[in-house]
Amino acid sequence: MNRNLMSVARKALTKVHSPNSPATNNKLFVAGLSWSVDERSLKDAFCSFGDVTEVRILYDKDSGRSRGFGFVSFCKEDEAVSAKDAMDGKALLGRPLRISYALERARGGPVVVPRLPNGGR
């Protein structure tokens, strides 16, 4: 019986952590932002779906303008799922939003550069 339980647990974990299944989390990547969208207006657009814990818009360091994308984090995963389902494709200040689940940024990992045989000739 104990072996059977362990087998079921392993299968469940494999399904949850499978690289082929889309990883859902509580952080959304929001693209298609108008230059006039600021963090407050982005939070206001998403707060009806749940407790927004963080909003971050990325700006160009030279011009100071929005780069057109940002991140919205929710307290709970189901709130993020609801927000993504409802807001993906909807317009915010005249521009349609493209929303996906944010991927964790890997830092410090090795960079692998493929080498072509015969020096690329």
Automatic annotation (TrEMBL):
Domain RRM: start-end pairs: 26-104
PROSITE patterns membership: RRM (PS50102)
Pfam families given in the database record: RRM_1 (PF00076)
Gene3D superfamilies tied to this protein: 3.30.70.330
Gene Ontology molecular-function annotations: RNA binding
Keyword NADP: no
Keyword flag Acyltransferase: no
Keywords: RNA-binding
The protein's name in its UniProt record: RRM domain-containing protein
